[in-house]
């Protein structure tokens, strides 16, 4: 069984402190290798690599000689690959990146985007993805499936009617804030500088912050 190669390409990933605007982490891959601060959410998944910009489907006009790459290439019909940076203790920050978004991918459904929070020690992450394969939406959701309803405990489908959905490079950003009164977390989402709204994750009143990154998911073999 051959797995379709799914790429999440991004040129510069920046994590910054909201209040002070300090840069907590950034990587533009121009050294030809990723920063050593990248990590994995799952063991044995594919990590971030740096690829020559001339090899990507579309050269980013404002980019440099290299792009970052996350790829999901295991042998299953479905899977995800994710790489994370920063620390679990990061709070009140912005994560942003130029992300290559797929539209009606001929090889199957492809979700690509950025991870607002990830911590494998509690098996929890929240990501904002462009879901343009047969859908006209973004999705902001976690990985906690309620098996009674078969829906995620935190899940938001965001209408994408008013944005540019052409396949190629787009700028995605999430502003993450922790509410000090109840420890809920709000995610303010942007796509090409368009405000997609603010969504609050307060299902269990957890302080879910830290470890932002990038996300790739490929689903094929389904008509």
Quick overview:
The chain has 223 residues and is mainly β. It is 0% helix and 51% strand.
Estimate the mean pLDDT confidence.
82
Number of helices: 0
Reading the helices and strands in chain order gives EEEEEEEEEEEEEEEEE
Give the DSSP E fraction (strand runs of 2 or more residues): over 45%
Largest sheet: 8 strands, antiparallel
Q: Based on Cα principal axes, name the global outline.
A: globular
> What structural category arises from helix and sheet content?
mainly beta
Report low-confidence residues grouped into runs of 5 or more.
1-7
The percentage helix is: under 10%
For the termini, the CA-CA separation is 17 Å
Number of strands: 17
Tags for this model:
single chain; 223 residues; mainly beta; eight-stranded antiparallel β-sheet; seven-stranded antiparallel β-sheet; 17 strands; 51% strand; globular; disordered N terminus
Q: Secondary structure elements and their pairing?
A:
Blueprint: E1 6-17, E2 23-27, E3 39-40, E4 49-52, E5 66-72, E6 78-84, E7 93-101, E8 109-119, E9 124-131, E10 137-142, E11 145-146, E12 151-152, E13 155-159, E14 168-178, E15 185-191, E16 194-201, E17 213-219
Antiparallel strand pairs: 1-2, 1-5, 1-7, 3-6, 4-5, 6-17, 7-14, 8-9, 8-17, 9-10, 10-13, 11-12, 14-15, 15-16
């Amino acid at each position: 069984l051959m797995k379709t190669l799914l790429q999440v390409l991004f040129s510069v990933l920046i994590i910054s402190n909201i209040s002070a605007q300090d840069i907590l982490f950034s990587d533009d891959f121009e050294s030809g290798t990723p920063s050593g601060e990248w990590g994995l959410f799952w063991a044995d998944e594919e990590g971030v690599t740096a690829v020559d910009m001339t090899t990507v489907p579309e050269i980013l006009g404002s980019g440099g000689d290299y792009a970052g790459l996350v790829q999901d290439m295991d042998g299953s019909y479905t899977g995800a690959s994710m790489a994370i940076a920063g620390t679990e203790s990061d709070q009140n920050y912005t994560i942003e990146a130029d992300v290559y978004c797929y539209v009606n991918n001929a090889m199957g459904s492809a979700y690509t985007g950025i991870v607002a929070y990830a911590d494998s020690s509690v098996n929890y992450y929240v990501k904002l993805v462009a879901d343009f394969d047969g859908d006209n939406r973004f999705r902001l959701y976690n990985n906690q499936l309620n098996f009674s309803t078969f829906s995620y405990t935190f899940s938001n489908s965001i209408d994408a009617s008013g944005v540019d959905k052409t396949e190629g490079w787009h700028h995605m950003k999430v502003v993450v804030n922790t509410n000090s009164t109840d420890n809920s977390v709000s995610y303010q989402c942007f796509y090409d500088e368009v405000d997609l709204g603010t969504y609050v994750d307060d299902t269990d009143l957890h302080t879910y912050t830290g470890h932002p990154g990038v996300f790739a998911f490929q689903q094929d073999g389904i008509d």
